[in-house]
Amino acid sequence: MSDRTRHFLHSSEMPTKWYNIAADMPNMAQPPLHPGTGEPVGPDALAPLFPMALIEQEVSSEQWIDIPAEVLDIYSMWRPTPLHRAKRLEAVLNTPAKIYYKYEGVSPAGSHKPNTAVPQAYFNKQAGINKIATETGAGQWGSAMAFAANIFGLEALVYMVKVSFTQKPYRKSMIETWGANVIASPSTTTEAGKKILEADPDSTGSLGIAISEAVEIAATSKDTNYALGSVLNHVLLHQSIIGLEAEKQMENAGDYPDVVIGCCGGGSNFAGISNVFVRNKINGKNSKIVAVEPASCPTLTKGIYAYDFGDTAQTTPLLASHTLGHDFVPPGIHAGGLRYHAVASQTSQLLNDGIIDAMAYKQIECFEAAVTFARSEGIIPAPESSHAICHAIREALEAKEEGKEKTILFNLSGHGHFDMGAYDSYFAGNLVDDSMDKEGINRALSAIEGLPKPPGYTGKAASL
Fold this sequence. Notes:
7-stranded mixed β-sheet; alpha/beta; Rossmann fold; 2 domains
């Protein structure tokens, strides 16, 4: 057992292939459907939005997919990322548990998001695309795509959820520094945005609305493609580099996680740290793998498993996932990256199969955990990451109560340097625990009652 608190990999040890969980899932995720015909969507239906290389990755069942040399070269600007042993946090908690965290905040954009932004920009450039339209919640994805687009000489247009656009002004500055344009969503620049504003002029926006605006721009512009920062298979594939590195680093530390934790909105960060360990669990390793979400947007813990649109304007294919309904607008919590109405189909299927677990926490208890972590480990976490920290602390305290050793691994998906306004609110006592909007969820779920039903359809939300 190593006494080191930080575990690094040499650049020569960086993974050269992405891992595809589809190859090992006992039950494949249900395919996306065409909303008009109800039939599985083929590559031709996705071609107006994505380059063929990404479409091939989306539908691939190959276990390993090569990372292009050009992408590896850019990854090497910050990867491999470090694995830390949180010994100071362990001491504060007085726990026999060993706590490790993989730190993705060392990337240029300050989060895990460039892991997929870079290959998406690369494959679009290879396909002759000149411009990317995308959305962002808290701004991490928009920042990452602005960074990646700049590297490959692409234009980028980012629709940022309005509540986060207001809460996090320096994310906007970051996006613009890398040369991208950013617009608060909903906006008057698209028909989807105009429709939302006509119905609700004071709309604070949602990722579903911002996706609608970005997809509309891409679908109506020949030289523009769409890029998504989470949910889709190829995004989860790219993020697997996190778990692949972590697996090597845990081996170097002479340890293996009993619990693997990631915060979960659309699913990219959670899948990035966990899918490699999911594979090991399927093959006999006994680890608990936990996705952690906000209690005010409890997609996995309270949503239904159904086919639903990925966006509010109903322009995307239907995806089988745990959902709160595409019309649902979550409360304006500071963890903007977790304010999405649905979860990746692969992650949803793994939950259905009992391979992963899900937990939900309220905003204030997550900030309490974040401050405890910052005061012991020194890193100020993003509000999204605080959800993973919150559950890691719970697991560590349970180990203390039981008097048992336990090894915990979580993904610290990004730093909170652009979220200090949220910390100010917390310290001033102005942060609120937004409750789950039961009426809003029920209203949103009623909008999907007539859509096709996947095997395992749950029919109604849990415990609303």
